[in-house]
Structure formats: structure tokens, C-alpha cells
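We give this protein:

***
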Amino acid sequence: MAAAERVTCNDIDWFATVAAALNAELNGVSLEVSSENLLSPSPSPLPSGSVVFLGDMFYDAATAELILKWYEMNAHLDIFVGDPGRWALELAAARLDCVMEYDISDEDCGEFPTTRVYRLLPQLSGNG
């Protein structure tokens, strides 16, 4: 965030935005928060130069479809996805490039011993 002009945390869960704001305050970081649903019903493109980090969003097929549809209008951005390997991530598998992997087996994560960060790649023409 050192080079960012602005950082916005977005989550449709109001409690998550409050937690993010408190965390930012405790760490002396400036952060805007929004609980607006950016994926639907009428998503709009983000400004050029934006970098997006999606965390643990591929928990079901409907949400995965919304994310991929939203991404089509934001394919000009750098978009990263953090996910421990939920099943719906497979819907985007052909468009993911793993950039980091973290061992979380020592934490209370049950079925997910690792989590990964992926760069979301543009859809290749002719591929679904």
C-alpha cells in the first residue's frame, strides 16, 4: 500500500468492513471501506490502474460465475485471487496463474493445509 493513492476494502458483510477499518486504524493505515455489492446486479468497470485482491470468493458456483463475468469488464486490471482451494475455484482453473503458496497446516484450517494466491488471466478467445 506504500505506493497506492487510495485503498478500498469491499465486502458485502458489514462486520467485515468494520473489522478491516479497525485493523487499518490499529496499523496506522488509511483505508476506505464499502459494503456495496460490486459484482451485481449491475457491475461496472473499475478505473484503469486499479489492482484488485479477491479473498476466499470461490465458495460456490454462482459467486464464481459472477466474479468471472465481472472480470470480463475489468480484464485490463491486475486481479489477484487468494483461495485455499475451494471446489468452485475449478471453474476458473484455466485462467489462474499461481504466484504464491502458503502452508497453513499449523492453523485451524481443517481441510485446507495450503492456500494460494493466483493472478487471474484474461479469457483466451475460443475458450470458455
Q: What stands out?
A: The mean pLDDT is 85.
